User: Fold this.
Amino acid sequence: MEHILTILIFLPVAGSLGILALPGGKNYLYRWITLIISTINLGLSVWVYLNFNPDLSGISNEKAMQFVEKADWITIAVGDINKIAIQYFVGLDGLNMPMVLLSALVLFIGSISAWNIEYKAKGFHSLFLLLSGSIIGCFAALDFFLFFLFFEFMLLPMYFLIGIWGGKRREYASIKFFIYTLVGSVCILLVMIMLAFSVQYPKDTYTFNLLALADRANFIPDSLLNWQNSRWLINMPARRWAFLLLLTGFAIKLPAVPVHTWLPDAHVEAPTPISVILAGILLKIGGYGLLRIGISIFPDSGWIYSDWMAILGGISIVYGALNAMASHDLKRMVAYSSVSHMGFVLIGIASMTSEGINGAMYQLFSHGILSAMLFLLVGVLQDRTHDKTIENYRGLATKMPVYTGMTIVAFFASLGLPGFSGFVGEFFTIMSTFGTDIIPRWVILAAVAGLVLGAAYFLWTLQRMFFGKYWSKGGEEWAVLLTDLNLREKTMLIILALLALAFGIFPNLLFTPMSKTIMTLVDMIQKS
Assistant:
């Protein structure tokens, strides 16, 4: 199918503009347009998955990329001979194909979750579709400038979706999200500019082509970021500074401690569909970007700072888990659990091994499914009582048995129960730490402690909220409001639960398309 990635990116954008052109007050029409476009995109992404060739590696070889679309976009002359070329360049390999599939899935679930949005529904659904196109474009882009454009473009709709449709402190949360992400963007932008004047492909053309940037043969001799003789800036090679800037920018997006504080506030104040997208997809851009740009282009510096990445991962695991255990707000607890689980991604990447990076990618995909499920479950209570305080509920199992059952599945899958996808990513990540000497031993202990703490806060929450005699702070009023799951809610949760189970029992569904690309990346790292 020709131009399938362009369709995946710009069909939601067209839908967004179409909704804006419609008259106001047609809320049912906005919902159906969003759902239909999200369903089409999900179907197209599944087709891409089924037709993906796992024997092609990608990374730095354009011939090994799939579903490639490439066209000249911006060309600027530099002097008499050279020029700067920016291209519309999209394609897939084993790193971004799973992320495109995950994005389409979570956005489809988000469109169903947004069905009951009534307040300024026209603006909400238009921004939702604009965000959808930006996310898929960010994962599919193979030109650094194009990647950065989509990366930045996600800020605008997310800022308004939190700031207008969020909770009581929505303005604070949206501004904090915007500022943190903007700081990360500036770090990435600086590296993009440094790279643009360090690489030529072909010889007379300064390029933003990510595949060309990942090939050391294309670096200009004596340029700022040259492999063999990188210039020094403030007593350190510029290549190391560039990697640290990328690590900072993508760590904010992941997020990792100590640049994580925007996440709990954004999650607590965001409406349920946006929390689903924020945790299910946007955090994954941090891990994906670190691999696609940070490690692929700077494997030598990544190797040098791998121990620091592992330390950040270990701290994030324990710190996030402890804060989740101390949280009284159910949504904040789930948000901090995301910080903890993203720590495993950093450790897997830091191992610089095939099993570690496979585990990190699997963790990204699995967490996207499970975090979406968790935030949907929180949204059920929020929709009914507008209260997410853990201590305000007791014995919900007697009032909401189906809801309780789905919560048990989500909690046990998230804490890493074998048979679910959460176990696979964590298992391979921890296993990778034993196969390398670059990760400090205490980080392994921190990872294991994170598993124990994860079981503790999930099971403790389950015991407090769902078992025992029914009681709620709202008394008889809440007893009437706390009805069990409706058909729409069951549909979303059952889909996600079955996917978590399927990818847990058959992990090769994801490992097979990823393995060749990751093996090529690991080979690049070892040769650096």
Observations:
- The mean pLDDT is 92.
- Residues 111 and 134 are 16 Å apart (CA to CA).
- Strands lie at 66-78, 82-92, 205-207, 393-394, 471-472.
- The chain has 22 helices and five strands.
